[in-house]
Amino acid sequence: MVRMDLFRSEEMSKVQLIMPAESAHDTITYLAEIGHLMFKDLNPQKSPFQRTYANKTKRCADMARKLNFFQDQLVKAQLVPAVRPPTDADEIDFEELEMMVDNLEVELLEINNNSQKLQQTVNELNELAQVLQKTGSFFSSAWYETEVRRQSGVMSRSSIHGEDRNLPLLLEQEMQTDPSKHGNLGFITGAVSRSKFVTFERIIFRATRGNMFLKSAVIEQPIMDPATGDKIEKTVFIVFFAGDWSRIKITKICDAFGANRYHFPEDAREQRQMISEVRTRLVELQTTLNVGMDHRDNVLTSIGYNLDHWIVMVQREKAVYHTLNMLSVDVTHKCLVAEGWCPVTTKPKIQDALHRAAFDCNAQVNTIFQVLQTKESPPTFHEVNKFTSAFQEIVSAYGVARYQEVNPGCFTIVTFPFLFAVMFGDWAHGIVMMVASFYLICNEKKFESKKLGDIMEMVFGGRYVILLMSFFSIYTGLIYNEFLSVPFSFWTSAYQCRDPTCSDAHSAGLIKWSYNPYPFGVDPAWHGSRSELPFLNSMKMKMSILMGITQMNLGVILSWWNAKFFHNKLDIWYQFVPQLLFLNALFGYLSILILIKWCQGSKADLYHVIIYMFLSPGSDLGEDQLFWGQSNFQVMLVLLAIVAVPWMLFPKPFKLQKLHLQKVQGRAYGVLGGSDTDSIDLEHEHDEDENFDLSEVLVHQMIHTIEFVLGAVSNTASYLRLWALSLAHSQLSSVFYDRILLLSFSYSNPLIRGMGLFTFACATVMVLLIMETLSAFLHALRLHWVEFQNKFYTGDGYMFNPLSIQTLVHGG
């Protein structure tokens, strides 16, 4: 059963706390633990930096930043340490925690810096090893060719054992140039990104005007770039050139392309020695790096054990100091004054928390707790649980309820999923939704502990809404008798075909052989018949009008409930009564005609009846007459509707003016017996009442009257979306079933059948279970926000937001 405090918000009281400065921190902490007091900012004119505890808040924010840094390091290291519950040994003072966090941050930063430098050196050595290996293979192949040429007699021994050991690498170029220009050549080796190599080679060729020789080799596996630390595909190159000017140009080009240059010895013995040294250093550095990473993981693991507890501590301290900044300090700086709102039922708990805080702090003076009398509008507080919270969020998304006005969330629990189901009626689709909602509910503890995405978090939060939507969808699907658009014959039909083959069902129609109605839902014989669509359209359209008029009448009745609760007789007599008469004189009468027509089985044209009710009131209805005296009754209803419009428009503004004049005269007579100071106070207190403007009130009332009169027509028409979406859902389901599933199963090939079944399942899930669900959800939302809530719901309140540790832990 829905609690009555969901129907109206809880009664609130404005309270004042006067607490000693030495116990203020612990007092606010104890109040935050029970979470029943919403503090008011008494220093709105001060900036955050001018407040008393600004430095404390800044320290808490800095600690929160450091704890976020620890979290990022744990995620980066892919460590998930076991979270253990806090023990008494873990309870440390906030000052000690601050020192510990500072030391841990310094240690982690130092470890990260050292590891980064070591990793950069390792990356450089890995790249150098690749360069030595690839470049060494260039020279080895050159010397091998030299030996082959020597044995073949192409080259003389003196040229082989000369100073230029690189001759075979440049043999082709040297044979084409003047021998007098031959000299000692230089070379540069390094590695460049593979994506830049083609451009790199072209630029070097143009810069040296072709006076160079370049050879390259691709590194098979991506390697870590020393500069960025990213894995990049690289190419090793060696460029031979002549002259210092070419060296300078090639060096600048290498720097421009981010190519890393490395020294490469020409002597084979030095090459082997350098490769050995690089491998040795790599092993040593990798060992050192692994030791450092193990030490970092140990530090992070020890942090991870208590990180959640530390985050809660910092959040709590930050919230406490933020609240202390909202308090005002007396002139002696010995007391702090707080004001706020609390539910009336929680006053004993707040007083008990104040006594406990004073006792634990050994305060000489207890905190003074007193209730203030005020004309301020209190905040709105509805106590909800995990079932009702989603429905309340639907209402609050439109606007927070005014203090103690009727809460639509109480009715939305039933009406929202039901109107959704009217548009989504198919009990096969309802079963799928029910299974999905049951899965979310049965695993809610697992999902609550996970970090969900935005869409998944929204779906999980509305799991009970989806559950009720699925229940009502199954119910309406049974009424429509649709299971993936296929009807089921649970009972004997009242109609039969003209022949056993039912070949003329679409053309000649069916024969009614029994006058007993189908026990529940739509007779399956209508499916596939000639009159299926006209019958279902007529039924669903009239059903939509009945539901819309019922819900709008409920909204008007709730406006009376609000007026009665707030003792507003003007709204009862000059708003509720004429609105109820106008709405039911037109559309309530239409609903009664629909019911009479269904009960009598009449063929009366209701369109004709309603149109000529205004065009020709009192005229003979002929075959469209449903009951005796209908013409005269319609004339009376038209007169009531006409009278209701000025009834809504004129009396209320003049009544308000009369009440205002009486109030002003009453205050004037009351001031005669008082002093001048009392007169000034009363004038200041009621300054807003002196600005009463009849024309402004008349315009405001005219807007509301026009809005209701036009809204009565447009809102009734808006409920026809129930019929339209229900028809669209049924027809889409029928098309998918007939044109995909049945068509594919008409073939004997199992592959075609399997593809048809898969396509049908995908179309059903994507279109009917996702897109149609979202569409029906949004339309049901519109019907509640506009057509239902605008009859009685103001929605200009503000939410009760108490200081609560539980909210910080779960929501912060």
**Total strand segments:** 13
Radius of gyration from CA coordinates: 42 Å
Low-confidence stretches: 155-168, 170-183, 671-688
Structural class: alpha+beta
Subcellular location: Membrane
Membrane topology: Multi-pass membrane protein
Protein name: V-type proton ATPase subunit a
Pfam families: V_ATPase_I
Please describe what this structure looks like.
The protein has 812 residues and is of the alpha+beta class. 60% of the residues lie in helices and 8% in strands. It contains 25 helices and 13 strands. It has helices at 24-34, 54-76, 94-152, 157-160, 171-175, 197-207, 244-256, 268-324, 347-360, 389-396, 409-423, 427-442, 444-448, 454-461, 463-480, 532-565, 569-600, 606-615, 630-649, 651-672, 676-685, 694-718, 721-745, 750-788, 805-811; strands at residues 12-20, 38-39, 186-193, 212-218, 223-224, 231-232, 234-241, 260-262, 328-329, 335-343, 368-372, 495-496, 511-512. The strands form four sheets. Strands 1, 2, 9, 10 and 11 form a five-stranded antiparallel beta sheet that branches. Strands 4-7-3-8 form a four-stranded antiparallel beta sheet, with helices on both faces. A hairpin with a 6-residue loop joins strand 5 and strand 6. Helix 17 packs antiparallel against helix 20 and helix 23 (721-745) packs antiparallel against helix 24. The protein is flat, with a radius of gyration of 42 Å. The model is unreliable at 155-168, 170-183 and 671-688 (pLDDT under 50).
